Amino acid sequence: MISKEEVEHIAKLARLELSDKETEKMQKDLSEILDYFDLLKKAPKPEKAVEIEGDLRATRKDEITSSHDIADELIGAAPDKKDDYIKVKSIL
Amino acid sequence: MDLTEFTIKQAHEGLKKKEFSSIDLAKAYLEKIKKSDLNAFISVTEDLALTQAEEADKKILTGEFGMLCGIPCVIKDAIMVEGQRCTAASKILENYIAPYDATVIKKLKEAGAVILGKTNLDEFAMGASGETSAFGATKNPYDKTRVTGGTSSGSAAAVAANEAIYTLGSDTGGSIRQPASFCGVVGLCPTYGAVSRYGLIAHASSLDQIGPMAKTVEDVETVFQAISGKDKMDATSVEYKFEETKVGLKGFKIGVPKEYFAKGLEPEVEKIIRSAIKKAKNAGAKIVEISLPSTEFALACYYIIGPSEISANLARFDGIKYGLSVPGKDLLDVYLKSKGQGFGAEVKRRIMIGTYCLSSGYYDAYYKKAQEVRQLVRHDFAKAFEKVDLIFCPVSPFPAFKLGEKLDDPLTMYLADIYTIPSKLAGLPGLSLPAGKTKDGLPVGLQIIGNHFQENKILGCAEELEPIL
Q1: Per-window interface: A 44-83 vs B, CB < 8 A
Q2: Over chain B, what is the mean pLDDT?
Q3: For residues B166 and B226, what is the distance between their CA atoms, to the nearest angstrom?
Q4: What class, spelled out in words, does domain B1-280+392-469 have in CATH?
Q5: Which of A15, A37, A90 minimises the CB distance to B339?
Q6: In chain A, how many domains are there?
Q7: What is the domain partition of chain B in residue ranges?
Q8: pLDDT exceeds cutoff 60 at B201
Q9: Whether B434 contacts B465, CB under 8 Å
């Protein structure tokens, strides 16, 4: 079973606050799920890469195009703002 | 005349013959939605629907109008409709107003669609039953003590209960096909890249795909045609024009993967699927047993790749740019509290799995290994499609289960998508076609998987099978 400290460490990396009860349940759930992942150790190495379908490597010209003018709506969605700026807590 | 029982084609004919107007249709559906106790909707967009219906009626008067003009639809609440609330069924986005239309919505609006509402789903489309929604589970119209499947839970229920003619859902590991199977409707998960993901709230970007659900194969095809194609706002979308081709079962080679009929498949489901395969054979298809040897690894692979992408994609919900913001003593505290209070249990679990798999020291053992296994899965399918045109298999090992039955046991819940996940890892298109019902009257779907961008084969074959299943 993964330890309480380990769960707390991962939660901190994920910027996620967990209650004591959640941490306890997470220990159990993560352990079961991670144990299940051990199955992959049995999987062979792939022989060769399979070509990915479609056009995923397509490039486009590096041009600035404005598809919508929604700056106001985007800033409007922020919980805390002043004029045209999104407000955050001071970090220093 | 009950105005809520039509297919797209029937409603279109009715509009053409002036038997009713688009406003009549919209009102009939809105009335029905208001009376429903299925909890299929997070928001009902009545004003939008009536405005769109009025516009559609004007267009209909001119006599020049397309198949989707004036036809009522509903949209999964992870797809943005400008000016409407878009929650992804999460408390963290409870009051979020979509600032723009998803590309699929833009296309539907251009086609004259009437949007009745936004449908319920598992929170951020993570789940397999519809139960992880922060706004309560959707009930299955066939048995209200059972789940609808997920994650496009409200979408499937709404179509099955005639609360919409068609809907858009999204599928990451089975979220269109599996609820379609549980609710007895047709659901198509298109090839990865066939439909733009722009404006779909991201879950796992290498897997997410928007697709249609409706009552008939023909309707699904109509909607798919309207929403597919390259979009400059989604770099992974591809130039693809769907063309209906007259293909039939006669002469088709259909592969049946032996690994999909192993332990865990409920006998009643197996019987229905085997019988569907037999009917395809009687209609002239050649049935070939195939092997997809990496099947047993697919679920573990998916639950590493999916959550890893989730842990990155959901980092944006930090209480700063949008959504729930819980005050804290410093910036870090705002992050911790907003996420901690905003996300539900399954979302937190997946963020934790993903963060763990990507964390220092574990990357090679989990994420890198899963990427290799994904290659194996792709390779299995590539080899299979050298020999067969389509693959037939179950959508899910069991029919709709009881509400609450699997909610506290994540691994058991994950098994509900065991047959939809492998093809998804390979980016392949798949359709759920109603194939029969269990003795308790619960629908079971046949899954038809095609090669990349061969939706035409899937749909052609499904259309031929539809009346004989």
Answers
A1: 44-47, 49-50, 52-56, 58, 60, 67-68, 70, 73-74, 76-80
A2: 96
A3: 13
A4: alpha beta
A5: A15
A6: 1
A7: 1-280+392-469
A8: yes
A9: no
* Residue A64 lies inside a defined structural domain of this protein: no
Give the domain extent around A37.
4-42
pLDDT of residue A50: 59
Q: Which residues of B touch A27 (CB under 8 A)?
A: none
Task: Give B378's contacts in chain A (Cβ within 8 Å).
Answer: 50
Please compute the mean of the pLDDT values over residues B110-134 and round it to a whole number: 98
Q: Calculate mean pLDDT across residues B380-406.
A: 97
Nearest residue in B to A31, CA atom: B353
CATH number of the domain encompassing residue A8: 1.10.20.60
Residue A73 domain flag: no
Q: What is the pTM of this model?
A: 0.96
Tens-place pLDDT, residues B327-350: 999 999 999 999 999 999 999 999
Q: Cβ B356–A79 below 8 Å, yes or no?
A: no
Instruction: Specify if A21 maps to a domain.
Output: yes
pLDDT in tens, A7-51: 999 999 999 999 999 999 999 999 999 999 999 999 999 887 655
Asked whether residue A20 is assigned to any structural domain, the reply reads yes
